[in-house]
Design brief:
This protein starts with a strand and ends with a helix. By secondary structure, it is α/β, with parallel strands linked by helices. Helix 3 packs parallel to helix 5. 28% of the residues lie in helices and 25% in strands. Strands 1, 2, 3, 4, 5, 13, 14 and 15 form an eight-stranded mixed β-sheet that branches. The relative contact order is 0.15. The radius of gyration is 21 Å and the shape is globular. Bound molecules: zinc ion. Zinc ion binds next to loops.
């Protein structure tokens, strides 16, 4: 019997399936059939030459927003997936109990990629940019449970956003209700932190092992380190107890200063996620491989970086038998990458720059055994350059405008590195 597809000659990075090194990956009927050295090319109907490339399980992005045209933040996942290798998108709270049916029918059922969801404790979800927890009438635990119970296949967790503009005067009450929903539904709880109050100490006191703190390397006031970069004792206790630390880069939540302080103290994140949405897709987050590049630059080993976007988020979502692994029998979601060498300026959300020597870019995304063709990028939503509320920050920051003027994108950097490599080959 012939394989449908064979990916030959690549360097496999698959912590979940226990594969590492120069191996070939064979696919049959949408599932991984074999991972082995030197599978003959004539054993498959179609062969992809992966020499010089990394071959990994399709990436899992734990924090994204894909409820497009219904919520402020939502983007179309398929065009981004075709350029980034992300085959499983966890939507982090775009839908609430009142809009979950729409997420399923209009987005999940029609997308080429796999989509899972964390249901927002606010039943209006993220229709607008903020304030969803400012009116407690929207935070109905009974209604949450009713919808979560009827959608167990889609709902993998509870999402709550904390921070003054989101909760208004309500301090920790939205978190208490999200906690109650998580307990009653036996789901993990993802907590977003930004600018308090509430204060971070009180937030972590209400979190349990297995819950997820997203934006864990933020430089905003709810950050985990003091102004000298020391991890707070209460944060250390939560971390060591097993609260999952998730990056959620976004447009406000990744600081090189915080990251360097924590990594120097031996604290790597459990999960690297992009928080990709209408704003962050325009930089400096751009996409998940660019977020991964930042952690390679920060000294995290390549194997650990890939683990943080494959098997680790799969465990958090409870989908590790089928996704985030190349174990034979699992879904044939596969991603190919090239690691370019050169000099690459990387930016955090405050505009701080670090020059990296390596840049990871996607070369091919395979969903259920089928290569995803490159899809045209989606234009920004009409509202992203216009503040929704008088007091909200300008949607596109000055830094983003500058990056757009410069034409600074991962694609442009990779193309420049390729040109340099070609010219040094011809001259050398
Ligand atoms: Zn988010």
């Amino acid at each position: 019997m012939k394989f449908d597809l064979l990916i030959k000659g690549g360097e496999v990075v698959d912590a979940g399936g226990g594969h590492e090194g120069n191996l070939d990956v064979a696919v049959t009927r949408g599932r991984i059939a074999a991972v082995d050295s030197d599978i003959p090319a004539d054993a498959a109907f179609q062969v992809i030459d992966a020499s010089g490339q990394l071959v990994a399980p399709g990436l899992i992005d734990l924090h994204t927003h894909v409820f497009r045209k219904v919520t402020y933040w939502g983007i179309d996942p398929d065009p981004v997936a075709s350029r980034s290798g992300v085959t499983t998108w966890n939507d982090a709270g775009s839908a609430g109990a009142l809009t979950l049916a729409g997420l399923r029918e209009f987005i999940v059922d029609r997308a080429r990629v796999q989509i899972t969801a964390f249901l927002n404790i606010s039943n209006i979800g993220l229709v607008s940019d903020n304030h969803e927890c400012a009116n407690l009438a929207y935070l109905d635990v009974g209604l949450f449970r009713r919808l979560a119970d009827r959608n167990r296949d889609l709902v993998h967790g509870v999402k709550v956003r904390l921070g003054t503009p989101t909760v208004g005067e309500n301090d920790l009450e939205p978190l208490r209700r999200a906690r109650q929903a998580a307990e009653e539904c036996e789901l993990p709880l993802m907590v977003h932190i930004a600018i308090g109050p509430p204060e971070i100490e009180g937030v972590l006191a209400l979190m349990r092992p297995g819950d997820i703190l997203t934006h864990c390397f933020t430089g905003l006031t709810m950050k985990l380190v003091d102004d000298r970069g020391q991890l707070y004792d209460f944060a250390k206790r939560a971390w060591d107890a097993g609260v999952i630390m998730d990056i959620g880069h976004g447009t406000g939540s990744f600081s090189f200063e915080t990251a360097e302080a924590l990594m120097a103290a031996g604290r790597s994140p459990d999960v690297i996620s992009s928080d990709l949405h209408q704003l962050s897709a325009h930089g400096p987050a751009y996409d998940l491989p660019t977020c991964m590049t930042k952690f390679l630059h920060l000294g995290m080993p390549l194997r650990d970086v890939f683990e943080a976007v494959t098997s680790r988020p799969a465990e958090v979502l409870g989908i590790e038998r089928d996704a985030g692994t190349l174990r034979p029998g699992s879904r044939a979601d596969i991603a190919l990458f090239r690691l370019h060498r050169g000099r690459f300026p990387l930016y955090d959300v405050s505009g701080a720059m670090r020059e990296a020597r390596e840049l990871l870019t996607s070369t091919l995304t395979i969903v259920g055994g089928r290569p995803l063709e490159l899809l045209p990028p989606e234009p920004p939503a009409p509202w992203v350059e216009h503040p929704v509320w008088p007091e909200s920050i300008r949607p596109f920051t000055e830094q983003q405008e500058r990056l757009r003027e410069l034409g600074h994108t991962p694609e442009a950097m990779a193309a420049a590195a390729e040109r340099d490599a070609t010219s040094s080959q011809t001259t050398g």
